[in-house]
UniProtKB/TrEMBL annotation:
Ranges of residues in domain Farnesoic acid O-methyl transferase: 11-138
InterPro entries for the chain: DM9_repeat, Methyltransf_FA
Organism of this sequence: Aquatica leii
This protein's name: Farnesoic acid O-methyl transferase domain-containing protein
Domain of life: Eukaryota
Pfam families according to UniProt: DM9, Methyltransf_FA
Length: 299
């Protein structure tokens, strides 16, 4: 699909276009306050997300929900925009996670995971606070590397989506499944551990993945990261497994294991769902914790 080229005035009035692809790439030339809206309709409404790039005199970027404060995520980004040259960015929304990054960096400079599922159907752009903007929007164009390898998602095991990594490294387009207490994204992984293939979480800053097993939060240096995955989270309980749940591994006894997550202590932590045990286990605070109420990842 061809690029969309447009100019925005100093009005803080969004121009919307349909896009439910889950990602958008764009170039923008502005002195400050390049704003992007993600909405269910072609208008400002609730629920809606906004990403403000280069706000506060081109010093900070934030993510906001429903046009209200406090902002749900904030990051210092001094001089990220330029009035005389185009700067390139991408925005991605999937599995309740909103993220934004620079064109040649697969890691977002800001991201936030919501607990509510919001079906994004429209993207809007605008400028304000003394700035006008020139935009070139690659609507529907895949992110660099996105879809590479022609992964087959027809199977709920999605074996082609797992990428080997180690030492805290995060492959391009890794699937963000949660966040820790500081807001750092947590990625969905699986690890060979004690005879099983166990789903868990990757905390990149720790240089390791963690899996729940044997009552402990176990650190594993080598792991596989779920990448280029377009699934969603479904609320479940007591070992229930919905249709198309992602089969991510198996226990040491050969029982299928699924990817689950739980909100606990201000964190959204990823772990394993084991149907015969009727719960989701998460690795947290050095322990393996179990919860009867959880979300499960489906294709």
């Amino acid at each position: 699909m061809g690029d969309i080229e447009l100019n925005t005035e100093d009005k803080l009035e969004y121009t919307f276009f349909p896009d439910d692809s889950g990602y958008v790439r764009f170039k923008v030339r502005a002195s400050n306050d390049a704003h992007i809206a993600l909405s269910t309709t072609a208008a400002e409404c609730d629920p809606m997300y906004e990403i403000f790039i280069g706000g506060w005199a081109n010093q900070r970027s934030v993510i906001r929900k429903n046009r209200t404060k406090p902002d749900v995520a904030e990051m210092p980004t001094p001089n990220i925009l330029h009035p005389g040259e185009f700067r390139s960015f991408w925005v991605r929304w999937d599995n309740n996670t909103i993220s934004c990054g620079c064109e040649n960096n697969s890691q977002p400079f800001i991201s936030w995971t919501d607990t509510e599922y919001v079906p994004i159907r429209y993207v809007g752009v605008c400028t304000g606070w003394g700035a006008t903007g020139t935009w070139i929007i690659s609507k529907g164009a895949p992110l660099p590397g996105y879809g590479a390898g022609g992964g087959d998602y027809s199977s709920n095991t999605c074996s082609s989506c797992w990428v080997s990594a180690s030492g805290g490294s995060v492959p391009p387009h890794a699937f963000v499944g949660g966040k820790d207490g500081s807001g750092e994204p947590l990625y969905v992984v699986r690890c060979n551990f004690e005879g099983g293939l166990i789903p868990g979480k990757l905390v990149s800053s720790h240089g390791t993945a963690y899996v729940p097993w044997g009552g402990n939060e176990n650190s594993v240096a080598e792991y596989e990261v779920l990448c280029e995955f377009g699934g969603r989270w479904v609320a479940c309980s007591e070992g229930n497994i919905p249709p198309n749940a992602l089969t991510a591994g198996q226990s040491e006894d050969g029982e299928p294991l699924y990817v689950g997550r739980v909100m606990h202590d201000g964190c959204i932590t990823i772990g394993k769902v084991q149907q015969s045990h009727g719960c989701c286990y998460i690795p947290y605070g050095g322990a393996e914790m179990n919860f009867q109420q959880y979300e499960i990842l489906v294709s």
